[in-house]
Give the backbone structure.
Amino acid sequence: MQFTPTDCLLIIDVQNDFLPGGALAVPDGDQVIPVVNRLAQAFGRVVLTQDWHPREHVSFAANHAGTQPFGTIDLPYGQQVLWPVHCVQHSAGAALADNLDVPHAQLMVRKGYHPHIDSYSAFFEADRKTPTGLLGYLRELEIKRVFCVGLATDFCVAWSALDACAAGLEVAVIEDACRAIDLNGSLAQAWQQMMDAGIARLQSPDVLNTLS
Ligand code: VGL
Ligand code: ZN
């Protein structure tokens, strides 16, 4: 695969709280790091996202009396999964993984900072209307193709990939550079939605071995 200046690697939420031992640990989440580092070397354009919640965030079970993490509640914008407190602004858990090695990343998009709306997607908050600004950035730089990697496959990666696709970008998800939470079948459902949307499901060796 030939990378061009119109390609972008989008590295989603590779943050301490999503790694083993973190507040919302994704199983084997740390295993994406060497894969992401290797992939990143092949891209000139790299964008990072950072889940970045205020302590009073609506997605935290701890902020809704009588609820438990991994349950759901209905909010004005739809159903919201309740999570353990995670990625609190300025906390160590919100920091990017120490061994993530992408010095050439140009932009970091923070998301989920509004107290009353979650934002799995790097493009739009959970109301599906409020933009983060990432689409405008990519459009101004004439990016045509986005490769999504990171955590978690079935939440922030899938929602970002689906929004990028709906915005008219060509989208691939590099499966072995992602790990999933897999809550009540969410991983299979996410792949089904991504396949239906025409998103490419790639493996990192396919991507890297074909580099010139
Ligand atoms: C994520 C749940 C809550 C993710 C973020 O990065 O996939 N999942 N916040
Ligand atoms: Zn979150």
In short: Residues 13, 18, 51, 83, 120, 151-152, 155-156 surround pyrazine-2-carboxylic acid (ligand 1) (CB under 6 Å). The chain has a mean pLDDT of 96. The chain has five helices and eight strands.
